[in-house]
Amino acid sequence: MPLGGAWHFILDLTALFAVYGIVVLSLNLEAGYTGIPNFGKMMGIAIGAYVASGLMGRMLVFLYNATNPSDKIVYNDFVRENAMIVTKLNLWLSHNILMSILLVILTLLLAFVVGGILGYIAAYPAVRLRGDYLAITLLAVAEAVRIIGYNYKPIVGGTLGLQVPDPFAFAGSRRFEAATLTIIVVLALVYIVYEKMLNTPLGRLLRAIRDDEQASESLGKDVATYRIKVMMIGTATASLAGALYAMYTTGVIATAYDRVSWTFWPWVMLMLGGSANNRGVLTGTFIFVLLRFIIIRYKHLLESIVPFDVVWLDYILLSVALLLVLALRPQGILPEKPIKTINPENLLKSSKNRTSKA
What we know:
358 residues; globular; 72% helix; 14 helices; mainly alpha; two-stranded antiparallel sheet
């Protein structure tokens, strides 16, 4: 592999790992810590992509026209004239670093807010369901979001899709390095926030809800409210990943956000790494993304050997890997760590000391 090709391979691998890392961390919060079987994970990712393309694209045109009154962008149909609009916006962004940075920040903030709101809307009627019923309901909601995006053109162009204004155009030939670095920074922030949040009494409460909801309710905890809040945070976080992925690829079409890539594969990564362990989740995500990249890049070499179309090779091999993990190490590569509690002997000694002083 030429040096340039190897560098682009590393960049693509790193960017996709970081995007999936954000998605699987949010799934770990929902399923690993709280026990919510969210099989509608692609909903949050699609929402973030829709915000980055359909909403922020239109808002950026408004900002451009406000700052360039002598050279306004005039259009009749945002979808059909999207290529012309985005080309002009990219030229503007390539010479305006501050506006590019502002665009990234605004897009992520808006994606987070919209994702949280729609996460609440999806969770509120379904969160009182349990097990398979909840999983199927969330799957149906996510599918509805994809179908609406594909059939209602004003959102993301329907079957045509939309180009996304490139906030990394200012970096020129290094735009992929700038985009990858941005995604890694967001992944690091999400990881730190999640680690801090889950190593608090809230994290212990979420595990208690996962293990025994009735016991948690008997202690006065509003389980339904906590489940809704977790769904809001998880969906909002996944929306960040969707927006970042859209800005990285500079294009969005609703059919790209399918169940296999953005719901089932994140579940495989979660089970591979170990649920309720954020480090394990990132480990499983990296291993999965690396294996899939290698299989996709080199599977054409096996065309004359395997008795089926190699286009299905990555699905078959990764499914076999999942079955092996479930059979040999069902707890994942890095299993859940036990919660550290106060040693009863130390608590008894402390009580005796206080009594003796009194």
